[in-house]
Each structure stands twice: as C-alpha cells, then as structure tokens.
Amino acid sequence: MKGAQGMYDYILIGAGVSSVFALLRLQNTAKRILVLEAGPDFNQRDPQDLYQGFGGLGLAEGKYNFAPDFGGALAAKIGVGPTQALLAKVAQTLDTFGGQHALRYVAARPAQLRHQRDLVSVACTTQHLGTHLSRTVFGNMYQALKASQIEFRFQQKVQQITPLAQGFAVRTALGDTYRGQQVILATGVAVDPVLAANLRTLSIFSTQTRVDVGCRIETQGTALDVLLGTDPEVKLRWGERYTYCMNKHGRVVLKRQHNWAMADGQNYRENGATSNLNFTLFQPHYFASSSAAQAYLTALFQDRSTVIGQRLGDVAPQFAKGQLLSPTLAYQKGPALDADLLKPAIQFLDLLQQVTKTPIDGQTMLYGYDAKFYPTQVKTNAQFETGIPGLYCIGDCSGATYSLAQAAASGVYLGQIIAK
Q1: Would the pTM count as exceeding 0.90?
Q2: Which pLDDT tens digit goes with each residue over 121-154?
Q3: Domain of 180?
Q4: Chain centroid to CA 400: how far?
Q5: Are residues 231 and 332 in the same domain?
C-alpha cells in the first residue's frame, strides 16, 4: 500500500481543537500515533482560512466559554460534574501554553432577569484570547507536539475509512493508505464531502442536521448597560433562540465560510474600541438531511459578495431613530433578513427594551446573515465510540459539541481514556 508504514495504534483525522487537546494528553505515552490533516501545518496556515490547518478554528477569536450547559451536549453525555472538571483542565492547559494573558470575565445572571420566564441568562466564565494570543497559544502547542513522538502529515485529505479484520485502512486523496488499530475522527465542521459519503456507508450518522442562522445586530454601546453592568457580555436565551459572541465596544467584521459572506463579531482588543455593541441572535433550524440544509443556506446567502444591512427603524417604525450610529462593517443596502428571521429579531429587541427600560434606537443595524454549521450528528456512546468498535468521533464533527471549550474538553476526555 502506497504510504503504508506499519500499523499505528491510533490515527487521528484532523488537527483542530479537539484533536490538539487529545494529543496533549497522549504525547508522553508509548502509543504510536499518526495525525492526518487536510490543511497545512501551523507555520503555513492562511490567516483567512479559519478551518483548515493545525489548530483549526482555535486560531480565530479564541473565546472559551466554561459552562456545562453552553456550547454543547457534553454534560448530557458524561454528566455535569465530569464536564466541569474537563473544562477546568481546558482552562489550565490554555494557561500552560500562554493563555494566562487572556481577557477573563464572568457573565453573571442580571437581577433584572431573575423573574423573567421568556428571557433568561446563562452564567458563564469566559476566557477570551483573541486572534493574536490564540496564534501564540496554538503555536506553543504545535512546538510541544512536534517535539514528541507523534507523527503529523499535513495536506492529507482523508476520503475513505475501511474497517478491516484488525483495525482500519485510511486512504487519502493523494492515494496514500495508512493502517491503524483505532481511528479518531476530529474533523470539526468541515467534513470532506467524499469522506462524509464514505461515512454514511458505515451507518454511524443520525438523520437530523442542524444549522443555526441569525442576524448580527449592532447598536449603541450603552443599550444593554442595565444587564451588563461592568461585564463585557451577557448570554441570553429566548426560547430556542440565543445571543452569541456579544462584543461591547467591538466591531462587526466580514467572515467568509463556504464562499458565503457573513457578519461576524470582533472584540475591541483586536482593532480598537468603538462606541457600539454587537451580537448575533441565532435561531436553530433542523433538516432531515445535510443536502436539505445545504439547499436552504444556498438560497439564503445566494451569491452575495458582501453582507446585506438595514436600519432597524426602516423595518420597525416603533423604534424611534435618535442617536446616529456609525456601522463598523461596510455593507450592501437592502432588505437584510427574510421575514421568518426579521420578525423574531424585532420581537427580541422589543423585549430587551421592555426589560431594561432602555430604548433600542432605530439607528440599530441588522446584518444578514450569520450562521453556525453542525455536521450531521454521529451516534456515539459515553466514550465517544461509534457503533463500529475502535472508531471514535470527538469535537464538533461528533455533533455533541459546538464551541471551542466543549470541543477541547471532548479531546481531553478521550485522551485521558486512551492514555490509561
């Protein structure tokens, strides 16, 4: 077999956050470990590509939310107590590699929401590295792992996993084949379509696909001071909908994923403070298949080269236009949101101003769209093992995590099991 070099104990597919944190638990073991990553190594990563290459999405904003009930279903799989312990280890690991200089804060439950049934907040400790410190932290991790006995092979897009009588054969797009006793999938949200088709033949997927879609909202920086107090962020839930990546004094920036233009948030430490506040209001959408989800998103984003934006007061006259707001993202004017997303955004903002007793200005910007992608969930047990013995799936590609902190925690968890 071209590329074969004997049998590895473990083959990890992907070198993103969950994989890196698993490897840090395995680097001093006697296991023979191979990592196959579709993208480049750390030193050759394109800063514009947030997904492929060593560290994966860990080299983006670097916001780690340490709450068992936020960012994934890890607590439902292994329990609240064990999840809290794993999240503490993630924080400790980040500090070990330079993350002690990150912005830290606790998003508490504001007193104004204690008796609210419709609008609730999530208490959460956050460690926000930002892009510059994230690169430093993962650079240090890369150097530590490269100095170990773990083998890395980059630019190796895996397209087929075949169960054998003993172990697995893993074939890449280059035609190389490697054999491993056990295989760990850690590809994040960017699963190669050819590999996904192969995995479907192994019958390890559940049927439902989830995509969270919402609008990025940019308003006056003082609009939520009643809830924020001295905190830079509050995490709010309104039924199934929730706020995400709130940035007081931050900016709205352009993000491209799957060639779609999206409105993303950036904290004020990256490129200077503003007088605005921004966040996304996300709404989960569920589809019977990944192809149905893809069709919905293609129609939603179309072929736009930039983000569409509109003023709140232009679509909801009940919000009086007052203080002029300077948008921080260049946008194309037009109806930014479909009706099924525009109506709840207006209702949410109206609820906010009722709770805070502070008017939401009609100058507020609505940007369309922001999105979070979830691969079709892989069915795994409490050890992240699929229905095929020896085939594991961790991080966001498992569907059990959808945040940096919980993805990292799943890697720590499986790494600890394997290292025993």
Answers
A1: no
A2: 888 899 999 889 999 999 999 999 999 999 999 9
A3: 7-102+131-206+379-419
A4: 12
A5: yes
Share of the chain above pLDDT 90, in %: 68
How many structural domains is the chain composed of?
2
